[in-house]
Amino acid sequence: MSVSSPSGGWDHIPSNATTSNVSTTSGTGRYAGIFNKYSYVTFSFTVTNVIGLSRDCSVTIRISESGNQI
Known about the structure:
The protein has strands at 18-30, 37-48, 54-64. By secondary structure, it is mainly β. A 3-stranded antiparallel β-sheet has the order 1-2-3, with no helix packed on it.
């Protein structure tokens, strides 16, 4: 069980903001170490506004081996 071609992105970032540290990672795991497996994709980035305040943003999606999104 694995993820092929993981990617991420956003719909809108204000024109007066910038993004950095853009990253997409993926992998696999098991629930509580013994239950069914899952695959995941995490997309993360940092957004900085015009006055220099930054915020780290991320989203992770897990799909279990049984096909359920967690």
